[in-house]
Amino acid sequence: MSPDGAQERDPEAGRRLVRVAIGGAAIAVLLTGFFQMRAADWPIYAIVAALTVVLTAPPVRILPDLSLPVPLMAAMSGFLYIGGLPILVVNFAVDLVMSVLVRVLPPEVVGRVRPLRLLRDFRSSPSGSRFGPMRVVNVEHAVFIVGLAARWWVATAVTGGEPIWTSVVAIAIAEVVGYSVWGGLSFLPVFPDRPLFPLAGSQEQIRPLIGDIALTLQIVVTAFIYLIVYSYAETGLLGAGTFAVASLAVLLVLERLNDRRLQLEEQNRTLARLNRELEHRERLSAIGKMASVVSHQILQQLGVIGIYANLVRTASTDGSAPESALARTRLHGAAIEGALEDVNRVLRDLLVFSRDLRVNPYHHEVVSLLEEAAAAARPTAEEHGVRLRVECPGDLGAELDKLKMKQALENVLRNAIDASPAGGEVVVGARRDGDVLEVFVTDEGAGVPLENREAIFTPFFTTKENGSGLGLAIAREFTRAHGGDVDVVPGAGGRGARFRLRLPVGGDAGSSRAGVPTPSR
Ligand code: ADP
Description:
The chain is about 60% helix and about 10% strand. The chain is an alpha+beta fold. The protein has three domains: about 15-190 and about 200-275, no CATH class; about 280-355, Orthogonal Bundle (Helix Hairpins); about 360-515, Heat Shock Protein 90. Helix 3 (about 70-105) crosses helix 6. The longest helix is centred in the middle third of the chain and has 77 residues, at about 235-315. Adenosine-5'-diphosphate binds near residues 416, 419 and 497.
């Protein structure tokens, strides 16, 4: 197997070959990447190059005269060159047996045995009607061997009867011809994904053909050819063959990796598109919900206003004392004002909710925030006969947007008062829990059923006749804008509800959104 029987083998040849293999592979990878693939693929090349360096390090003596430096490549080439023919024979035999089985066995048995079922389905598919998958594999092998034969023939012809290994030019030409034959044969109509000319037209069908031609060109044009020729000169035909197959394998692996990545990217794009569609639909549905809630509220209150306005317009003493008629009319006027206040509240909530959520945090004493929110809620609490208590250490301070947190707290307080029985107590308080400031509101109402504990914070969720469903959504958005979050748990002893607005403190509470761990329930 020595390039020249009389010549002594150069002990340095193996080492040189290692260097050439690594250099050639690196150049080939660079060129391939440069011509075909994108910058994003370079991590893959780096990994392949690093693996090549590791795998090519120890030269391995395969035959007495042949030391190949590439265990992995040598294994592949040995398998393909030496094992190619037996594989062909075995494939034909298996294909024959399976074809007979598919014909003679009852359909339900064929359906139960996977390889048989695949063969049957493949045959009945439009693209595979004439050729079974095994036959396609066989033709692949045959094409490969024809390619090798073409190489050998050309090399022999070019050297004119001289031993082939005397001419590096001969082997170079042979390689070019061999790959061209291989590329040309891949046009055969046997391959279901590569139709014969005239092409069926669709780009999808042309793509594999272009891929084959590109692969052939890559091997012929890039440094792989240099690698093959050099290894021929160093170690003879088997070395050249090894590198020919190995080059092919490297390119195929790279292409496969690239295909996988492209597939993944496509999947990601599809996922992103679906997400966008979902978001769009959710937004549409939220707008629909908002329109229905807001118009319902406003129409209802306009109805009330209409009734009382009519009463005011047609007011008369009707024989009663003018003072009592005046008092009645005043009551009607107050009812109109109440209805107007309800309409105002819905529109105000809507406005607050749709405004931007940027916060302007400054240092504040938490107790003053709680007291201001309690003061705003006190008239409603008195109206409901509910006691309101503030419970907060005086030295507690935090960086927060007071206006927004006060609004959030007022919304939670209003609900707590609504939910409380007359004579009940609502407590608004705060405490420090490590790096978290917990502002809480407890009541002695019916509490929030477990299944609604998430839903009550979504916009337009309401169980009230006159509710807008925006109060808690606003509270949550404002708390989240501070990097915190809000939740509800049962009150002490399982009675009532305890709303917890948890804000990160100690850092920049205003700009951080990463912040607060979800409170345990
Ligand atoms: P609205 O008060 O307009 O209904 P919110 O967003 O403020 O809107 O509240 C949503 C829902 O959450 C209420 O309709 C109610 O069912 C429930 N909820 C809020 N706070 C309490 C509470 N303290 N106790 C019981 N349920 C509550």
